Records
---
Amino acid sequence: PILSMLCKMMMWTLLVVVSVCRATAMDVPATRTRVNRYVGVSESGLEFGEGKFPGIPFKDYVQPTNDSIAYFANAGMNLFRLPFIWERLQPVLQGPLDDAYGKLIEQTVQSALSHDGVSVLLDVHNYARYRGSVIGESGGNVTAADFADLWSRIATKYGSTDKASPILFGLMNEPHSMKTTTVLANANAAIAAIRTAKAHNIITVCGNIYSGAKSWTKGGNDSNAAVMGGIVDPMDNFVYEMHQYLDADSSGSHTTCTLTNVTQAMTDATVWLRSQGKKAILGEWAGANNTDCHTGVESMLQFLSENNDVWEGWLWWAAGPWWGPYMYSVEPNPPCAGRDKPQEAWIAPYLGQKEAMPERMGTFQHLVDSASPEEAKAFRAYLDSASRSFP
């Protein structure tokens, strides 16, 4: 009996940890209304190890975890942006896609799609470059045709004739330091290749200057507003992808947030979208854990909700297993998947329906029912004590 009780206590300890971790995940009201079509996060890792090609998996770069994806999907997120590197997926221009790296992408895509109502945004995270050469630049080593070939191959694998396919195509992350007309030409070449492959998937299109929402109308005749309206999509199934951080230079590299009211920063791009009859998604944004950033995050979420006629949704930057103490990371803290980062509580009210979590006692009721009265009393006291020991 003593040994039996000790064994049961050990089992109870394990189950308490599992239960408390589950019960504390995103501890917010279970019923919420999602105002924007897409709410989600970038699952980062496969794009790590910049400049290390092909790189060594789990040393230079890492695959997002199934647990992380499940955590956010259960919390109500319905879109995962998956950044990856062109040079790893296609080591030789216009050559075949790499099987090993492609398998990591495929596994992550399927992990996300295993959750009901979830979509994936495939994000070529290359800043409009391949091995340092700007795509489509006159006299350069990488042409728009090379870029189109990449997307033809991706579309052949992931394309669908369903315009509402859960796999979205993010053409290119944050082009910069180039002519906006070149960004447009590259995008149109890739879109034509995707549609020729009979893929009707939603496409997201970044502009120049890191695709900043605040700067979208800045730059005169070479501004995104002046040029990027020239996107040609035979399926008319694309949205613009803009990014907007809350720090002073919009770079997303500072802990301080000066953009505590986003209205001025976001209004010009919003007006432009309405004038074009187009929509956008805020593909990257975030704030660090402090009062000003909290205010800015709330302001952004409210703005996107109020202007959901043109803003399809948003993606927080970022989650992923290697971020550690990174100021914007919302990757759950170990050891419990339910130990949220502070920013989780800020964004939680704007997510969709949360998957129901089991009641803490319900997880163990079968043990209580099968125990002797003495054991049941001891178990309840033990559970109550152990539960209070978790933050």
Note: Strands lie at 38-43, 79-84, 119-124, 129-130, 133-134, 167-170, 203-206, 238-243, 280-284, 311-319.
---
Amino acid sequence: MEKRPVNPFVYWAQSNEQLFLRLELEAKGTPQVTTSARRFEFSCRGVAPGHGVQDFEVLLDLQDAIVAGPAGYRMVCLGSRIQFYIDKDPDHRGFWPSLLQNRAKPAWLKLDFDRFQSGDADSDDEKDKDKAGGEDRSMRDTVDNLLREAKKKRSEGGPAPLDFKKMYLSTYNTFMLLGFAGVLVSLFRSYQAEGLAESIPKAYERVGQNVRFLQFAQTLEIVHAAVGLVHSRPASAVWQAVGRLTLVHLIHFQPELHNSPLVFWLYVTWASVEMIRYPYYLGQVHGLVPKPLKVLRYTSWMVLYPVGMSLEVLIILRALETYPESHPATLLEVAGHKLTISHIIGAYLLLCPFAFLFLLRHMFDQTKSQLFGKKKITRSKKVK
């Protein structure tokens, strides 16, 4: 008996002019697509999460009219997903209260959080790994319902709802941008007033506590990624937050490092990274990212990240020289072997190459996706 086609997971979003459909499906043949004024039909043989190679279909009776025929949509096949950009009928543009005529939402239809993202969107492969499940899926369903109800009220002429997610992320990114801008301004003013030779040893005294506070605040980005506020891999946020917090505390608890030139240049490098990253995040929150800023975001790391990583390693090596004398206390003794803070610092140093390679690969994948992904999009709709 021939199996009936099954539905892949479909994620949707909209703008005033278009619908966006993302099918979690890897095509193994040429997709068949038919659109009429209020209906979308898709069928294809492929592979989807939880299913082997078999036939899939998506049939949608739409809430309002779209541009019928091949001229009204664009299909992009990207590995394990298929993206559709569907033009709304010019006479029916604006926000729809729902995607379907029937307000009952199928279990396989979800809101496309990529279209509501507000952080450093990861590469396409990373986004494919972000599958909602368990408590996370329940939370996203709740947000999905809230957004749908808000749009329904807007379409019925009610007052525009507040976008608390956008408000929060705008506030957070602005706060972090101003914080790191203050670090750079303070270091620059010190340089202007006293010269480089005099200002370098005073870097920690002037901005050390500010940098430490900002790095604590930056741990919120782990939460943002974990709960789905932004489409970013939590692991990358963890590596960066833990790495920086380790460095700021190595410096904080070792006075001999406070006047080191390495600390001055580390603060300058970190602040320079964030003076590019947070304006980019703000642009994403509001859907306005200038092309030069995007290019700067995904090219500047090629210099700033290796410089920052080199400075971090040098500071750790310097800490290994000074901590045995300043912090000789034994933390734990096992079988006659004493564990001190210096042993922990040494173990962390051994982990650094793996963390650095992970972050560099992460940024390299993002750069390919963000700066060169469009070249892949323009390929033929056919999939071999």
Note: The first helix runs from residue 124 to 128.
---
Amino acid sequence: MVVEAAKEELARHCNSSSEADVDTESLRLLESSLDRVAELSKTLLKKLDEVHKLQDTFENAVHSLNRNITSLNKSHREGERKAASKANESLAEYHYLIPTAGGRFARLFLGTHNVRFQRRKDRMMFKEQYESFKQSCVPLFIALCILCLVFQRTRWLHMLLQLLLAYYYVTLALQENILEKNGSNIKRWWIIHHYLSIVEAVVLVTWPNSDSYAQFCRPLHWYGLLNSVIQFFQTRYQKARLYARRALGKAGEMDVSNADSSAVIVHWHEGMKILIPLVLVGQAFQLYVSIVLFRIYNAHRTEPHILLCGLLFLIMFFGNLSTTVYTLQEKAKEKEECGPDESRVGFAPMLRKRSPFRQFCNIDTQQQPLHTSIWVMW
């Protein structure tokens, strides 16, 4: 063993060295640490083997139960179908113990590899890397948008920006698929929004350096600059909300800053009065960009990618706007239900029972995405 070899080396060193060169106490502590590591490694390997065997047994039992549920669902007797439905609901509470390969998008990149982390440390580290990645990219996008506005005829610079955006959205979509399987309550629209953004970035990268692109590049990069600035302020606001909700005990540790909750009203008057107008201006600009694309397409009917870009911008505009309106309606309704005192302090009744999965990930069952993000989409 490696540990035994290290101990023999220590013994030889002690025998061949003078007392002045060797601190016997330090060597004794080192040898004791090596013994402890060796003992713990044996125990850990034994426990892991037991856990893996128990995991296999549990998965086989789940597969057997699923087969029984499927069989009962095909039955013509109503009582059997109801029993199957109740069993399926009970089984759903333990799905966090079953390995999963993530969504279809995650499987495209990772195959059928398990993406559900069993250790809290791994979940938290992955979430922190996700948050850090988003924050670190915003200043880069702002700088590149400014450079693209200054050097409007430098096509390779524009393509570099679009390639970085494609990488950015692919990474976000992949990470969010994994976070969703580990308990983060990320609204589905924002993952779909990232899929659309990937397609948009690819279309813009492959857009020829033609007259149509020359007409479109200026409003495109102004839009990108505006949204990058909005995302910068929005990220700061969302992180402040998330920290406040955690301090109030209303947010789980796996909640991310783009999956805010309407269960607690924090900084509504201070932050949202500034953020909401900025978001609405950005969405209006998004509609303007789609209209510009449709006008350009009327003059260049032989270039279908212009029409595709216009449709993508229009779809994302309606999706973002509907999410924002829904959020504002939910906020107004909750303020009425909670009353002025509760909404100002930030406490709202939370009486729903927490499922084992939420307890396992320390996530609130009442969490609803509140943010009105439009993200960065050129």
Note: Residues 259-269, 341-378 have pLDDT under 50 and may be disordered.
---
Amino acid sequence: EGRAGDGMRNGSSGINAEYGEDPPEALHQKRNEVVRQLTSLQERSSQVIEMFSKKDVAEVVEKHRDSQQLWDFLSDNYKFERERLDDVFHYGKFMYDVGNYAIASTNLDFYRNLAPADSKYYSSAQWGKLASEILQQNWDEAMEELERLKDNISAALHLTYSEVLVQRAWLIHWGLFVYFNHPQGRDSIIDVFLHQKPYLNAVQTMCPHILRYITTAVVISKRRRDGIKELIKVLQQESYKDPITEFVESLYVNFDFDEAQAKLKECKTVIENDFFIVGCLDEFTENARLIISEIFCRIHQRIEIDMLADNLNMEPAEAEKWVVNMIRLAHLDAKIDSKNGYVVMGGTSVPVYQKLIDKTKDLHLKANSCCQKIDKKLTLGI
């Protein structure tokens, strides 16, 4: 609270520094109104904050997550009244508005732990808590808040389907801040946005541009094989395109290595100018080269190292080291003929019945997708 007050007091010196000795009177009036509002909210919420700082209350909060049990305990032991609960939310929101995210997070958490899920400000407190953790760069706490929001959205029976879809779209966008900063965030993008049907549906319906970030996560993930087949199916169904999604399609759908090289150069420009993935540029480039080499080696029996070096924009000696590393990481059946400058691939064959299973296992999904598209066109009268 003291820091918030200091911030308000320091505001006058900032006004004087910007406007000189005689800043506009309206600014002074605005500042005085903010300070008055802050003082009022502090007074109204101070008793609640003091109560939550008590040891026995903290133990009950930690032990009982059910809001009714907490409410009964506070009512019986501290004569807590429901009217005081909204003051806690308003104070937390005010702290968020003036940039004191630590105090905002604490108060919004107090409110959320006590208020029923259908309370007027419950949803706002949830989103405010998430935003406060993101703005403090508390990525572990922010990840926990995302999971809690996901559970609450799924359990919100009072919301219509359209409202749930909007809530999930908001979570997807806020989640980008967390997933591209948390150590396990890239895998979470694949698990949530690609593998969980409600969120994949939200992406396809509300925000197909998120496919850029899903594709980036798949390319740089160590679990790439877990997501690439599903990603390809989704990309082929959608009209959204950008260099990152087109890079993947050029390799896994068209097997066009020249196009893949051209798209990889465009990806560099896109990534450098994207707030969320600009930090992934080196990792993306490295993994993209690995994918190109791996696919190239899988569809050729014998490859000249010089030709591979040209495709990767490398010197032959560097390309040979790259291939050795790629064979190890991709578990390829291959060996290097350094004397003649070749990579020789092993002749592993796939049984006929396995080929049949691979080609037919997704037919029902494709059939359902075709039926949905036909129904949609019939509905629209196309």
Note: DSSP finds 20 helices and three strands in the chain.
